[in-house]
């Protein structure tokens, strides 16, 4: 019963470095999401994929790219990390777009120095 | 602009009493609303939801109320227990077929502390 698995759990990057956050779900869900959580800002949607083969921008997409590799996997890439991208990142999935119950991973705590 | 707002960053209640968490939204295209609970160092977990065709949904100690005309929803926890202490997020999703299907927008969260 893995649910939604994110890797890595922690990461420290230098400004300008790139990295990819990985996310996989084993619930045969159609929709997947990437959020960032910052103090006082709640969870803000970065990108989402309503179904395999589609991706769309959320509320704060600048500085990020995503790939829906297959139905199970949805990755988030930072091409040139900036200190403003220091945050906790959560991946989530749901059976249908926008809803119903979304299941979240444990989060990735990213620090950009 | 914040489409889903939780204006109270924190709430403290006594064990056994009612906890009421509030949420306002601005986008009339939202038609499905959810509450999530989050403990430190964990991902959010789903708590309860409500469709815009209803004004109330109940699940055990948790009840969500929706007032569409006021664009307001609330979560009632009765009775509150110390284990309920967590951050609570409300979330909203737009109408299916609106072109924005897939977006699940969250509020800022309210930290609930239930004192023994």
List keywords for this structure.
heterodimer; A: 113 residues; mainly beta; seven-stranded mixed β-sheet; four-stranded antiparallel β-sheet; 0% helix; globular; B: 116 residues; six-stranded mixed β-sheet
Question: If you had to describe this structure to a student in words, what would you say it looks like?
Answer:
- The complex is a heterodimer of chains A (113) and B (116).
- With 113 residues, chain A is mainly β.
- Chain A has strands at 4-7, 10-13, 19-25, 31-38, 42-49, 56-57, 64-68, 74-78, 87-96, 99-104, 108-112.
- Chain A is built from no helices and eleven strands.
- In chain A, the strands form two sheets. In chain A, strands 2, 4, 5, 6, 9, 10 and 11 form a seven-stranded mixed beta sheet that branches.
- In chain A, strand 7 and strand 8 form a beta hairpin.
- Chain A is globular.
- The termini of chain A are far apart.
- In chain A, 40% of the residues are buried.
- Helices cover 0% and strands 54% of the residues of chain B.
- Chain B contains no helices and eleven strands.
- In chain B, the strands form two sheets. In chain B, strands 2, 4, 5, 9, 10 and 11 form a six-stranded mixed beta sheet that branches. Chain B has a five-stranded antiparallel beta sheet with strand order 1-3-8-7-6, with no helix packed on it.
- In chain B, a hairpin with a 4-residue loop joins strand 7 (62-67) and strand 8 (72-77).
- Chain B starts with a strand and ends with a strand.
- The mean pLDDT of chain B is 92.
- The interface between A and B is medium-sized, with 30 and 27 residues.
